[in-house]
Amino acid sequence: MPIRCLPALLGAAVLLLIPALAGCSPGSTPPEDSSGSDSPPSPDGDEAAELARQRLGEMSVEEKIGQLMVLLAKGTTAEESADLVSTYHPGGLIYFPENLEGAEQIGGMSNGLQDAAADSGAGIPLFLGIDQEQGMVARLPVGTRFPDAMAVGATRDTAHARALAGATAAELTALGINLDYAPVADANTNPDNPVIGIRSFGSDPDLVSEMAGAEAAAFSKGGVVPVVKHFPGHGDTDVDSHTGLPVIEKPRQEWEREDLPPFRAAVEADVDAIMTAHVLMPALDDSGEPSTLSPEVIGGILRDELGYDGIVTTDALNMEGVRQTHSDGEIAVRAVLAGADQLLMPPDPQAAFEALRGAVEEGRISSERLDRSVLRILTAKAERGLFEAEPASAGAAADAVATQEHREAARTLAEDAVTLLRNSGGVLPLEAGATVSVTGPGAEEIGAGLEELGYTVVSDPAAADAAVVGTRSARGDAEQKSRVSAAQGTGTPVVVVAQGDPYDIAELDGVDGYLATYSSVDASRAAAARVLAGEVSPSGRLPVSIPGTDLEFGDGLSY
């Protein structure tokens, strides 16, 4: 989901027995599970199903329709969203940064919203969700910041995926958040992808399957509902579905080979929820409808062919990729008819609600079809213990986020991910005590790390023994490329630290050294400094191939 869009602002063991792509990272071993302890006991399958059926029988049609909707929370208090809860009885709310100020506030708001839901209609607890993928998509203003998914893929170590998701789940549950729109299961096969990129574990479907499965299982173990996204795959697009409708022209056989495996694995692992993508894939459905509105894609492939019977949620319905040809109310109806169970962020909740109620009254959406979706939602809530859940301890929430254990897990992941792709003349590691210029994105953090390790840091490459230039997705950025060229023009050896996708190297000719961190979080920049200094030997391996170079999936140098 969403990189947030206001009107259109960017705003279970592990699956299959997939052969390991590589051994564990030779770096430090991450914690096996950073969640601290398993989530509280929940009803078993039979008890949960019975509870769900009982509650379903007590609900009105309007209350059932409400369960299909996940609305955008208002303000920073439960009172500001109280009207949404009392009017629509929604299945859930989603938080964005403007709703979040601090641990105690978030926990208190979560408790207040659950109280409001308990006092409203049939008293069904809420899914309180968030986009906390980590890396570039992390909404919380508190808690541990882990590197992006592509960094996890570069480690080749599922223990890192489990540690990330376990720590994130522990922090979310402490704040009263019970659902995370993560992990991303898209294989990023298009280097020009404007919206997935480092949010993906890589381009290889087996690697993505392993890592996404490990994260989903750890989220679930930690008491948080994982939402695997974005089916049928958003990794081979060059259009951002927040602003337009991506069209993916590839034969079905190629889709089955490149995009399907992570989602098939998620289905076989019986994940709680899968999110649809607002993409058009003519080989799967030539009707012109995006996958979110396609009975052939959701009902035909995901439900019937793959056999998935969990919750299907749409991506945000205020994104332009799904708003091309229908009204907002009709979009809600068509998504349900296609096979979706939950409608994320309808831009006009009243229009969606009324359109759904009208479709039920007219028989366009049968009562059986409505009940099927609501029963899936209620069963998941019962299985996750939401009906008996204790309130979040708002006062203690601050102590539960960003623990030393979690920070250590982020540090080891970041260090194990750093990938050395070029080291001409042995420019790295830097000579002890050298004078180093550091410029570009991350200069402050990388420079501070080098100073702590005994280097003299300056800003002028001409006055340095080596020039470190940070980049962040610089291929289309003339200013960043010019900064690299200027450093090269001084005659000082130049080392690039790429903190976004690793593809920049294809357009940065002649640099002496090149490190990929796959993330711009503080932990990744600190890791870059330690690798530059030789305190850590780079052990990451490319999780993608880089067109225009001889660099292939799996490449990476060491000291």
From TrEMBL:
GO terms for molecular function: beta-N-acetylhexosaminidase activity. It catalyses: Hydrolysis of terminal non-reducing N-acetyl-D-hexosamine residues in N-acetyl-beta-D-hexosaminides. It comes from the Bacteria. Residues 26-39 have a biased composition (Low complexity). Residues 1-22 form the signal peptide. Keywords: Glycosidase, Hydrolase, Signal. Pfam families: Glyco_hydro_3 (PF00933), Glyco_hydro_3_C (PF01915). GO terms for biological process: carbohydrate metabolic process; peptidoglycan turnover. Gene3D superfamilies: Glycoside hydrolase family 3 C-terminal domain, Glycoside hydrolase, family 3, N-terminal domain. Residues 61-379 form the Glycoside hydrolase family 3 N-terminal domain. The keyword Signal applies. The keyword Signal applies. Residues 26-47 are annotated as: Disordered. Residues 418-549 form the Glycoside hydrolase family 3 C-terminal domain. Its EC number is 3.2.1.52. Belongs to the glycosyl hydrolase 3 family. This is beta-N-acetylhexosaminidase. It comes from Streptomonospora alba.
